[in-house]
Amino acid sequence: MLFRSEAKKEKEYKILEKLQEEGKSQYVVTLINEVQLKNTKHQISETLREDKVYSGIILEKGEDTLRERMEDLECWNLVGDGTKRDYVIQILEIVSFINRKGFVWRDVKPSNFVFFKYGKVEILKAIDFETSMERNKEPIAETKCTSFYTPPEISRLYLSDDFSNTSHYVDEQYDAWSIGMIILEIFGGKNYFEFERNGDHERFA
């Protein structure tokens, strides 16, 4: 995982260290090491500047993300409700673990849950914590997260585009809203706003 700034890399690294201070976690991707890589001739990414050195961290390699599975409709339609409930239980356990460690994840979404296989066992783990914040300690940051999973009261702050006078602190309720949006998507096949546009969101109320 590469970062456009050293500050973002340091934040991600420190949060991962905190989440794994008691050893390798079943809930969070394992942090392996830090790296410095030069994007010579755009060998790393076309979206990053050529010949610039970028900071990165090496993480445990997983399989596909929950988002990728949900988008493979041919396979996802074969996933039974029992398996989907198991995914939801794992998501709840992961987010609860992060919250107990004193953090609000702020980026709970299907693409940040990765499948890992250990023998015949397959589990979900969390990735990407650069937008995470300490619970009730930091005022809401200007860094925006994915709008589909952002609570409405936070979205209003982003729409006003004025954080100069805000004293809004985040807590577990932020992540709880995001989980609800994921559950709707897992069992309904669409995010809430797609249901709303089609006028059939009330059947999930």
Which percent band covers the strand fraction?
15-25%
Could you give the distance between the termini?
38 Å
State the helical fraction: 25-40%
How many H/I helices? 7
Secondary structure category: alpha+beta
> How are helices and strands ordered from N to C?
EHEEHHHEEEEHHH
Describe the main β-sheet briefly.
Answer: 3 strands, antiparallel
List the helices and strands and how they pair.
Blueprint: E1 2-3, H1 6-19, E2 31-38, E3 53-59, H2 66-71, H3 73-76, H4 81-100, E4 103-104, E5 113-118, E6 121-126, E7 133-134, H5 152-160, H6 172-188, H7 192-198
Antiparallel strand pairs: 1-3, 2-3, 4-7, 5-6
What's this model, at a glance?
The protein is of the alpha+beta class.
Offer a few descriptive terms.
single chain, 205 residues, alpha+beta, 3-stranded antiparallel sheet, two-stranded antiparallel sheet, 7 helices, 16% strand, globular
Care to describe what's here?
This protein is of the alpha+beta class. The chain is built from seven helices and seven strands, in the order βαββαααββββααα. A three-stranded antiparallel sheet has the order 1-3-2, covered by helices on one side. It has a two-stranded antiparallel sheet with strand order 4-7. A hairpin with a 2-residue loop joins strand 5 and strand 6. Helix 4 packs antiparallel against helix 6. The radius of gyration is 18 Å and the shape is globular. The relative contact order is 0.13.
